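Researcher: Please predict.
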Amino acid sequence: MVTRTVLRTTLIRALSAWLLIGVALLTLSDSILAECPCNYPPATLIKVIDAETAWFDIQGKKTRVHLWGIHSPAKAAVENYSPGCAAEVEQAHQTEQFVRQLLASANRIQLDIKVTENEANTQAIIYADGLSVGQELLYRYLAIEYGDDRSFWCKPK
């Protein structure tokens, strides 16, 4: 009886150690994979226009870039919207501030350009120090993916 208890305890301890090592390795591998392993062209931030749009210098060309695949609440005057929309307008301001801070503090900005019609209409996935700006907005519930239902958002009067 004592032998089985000792054996069971030893087995549980051994499996616990291996389980802990497996969880640690999985956590490390996920954080490594979360960063962009990209070789996209570097860009220099010129100015953030709103949460989805900014001007960049891309290889010497001033280019207006719209964040590809993302929608964020529109920043507008509260009086232009129906009652109860003040919180959404405030979220739009917070989203813009987050994007502004993320891009301004980045050591490296890279663009995975998806659509280019001209220098004023380019859509791209924007990476700030290897992190997708769009994914960060999604993770923080500051945006939704393009094509998702926006009917719950406030509507202009």
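Model: The first strand starts at residue 42 and ends at 50.
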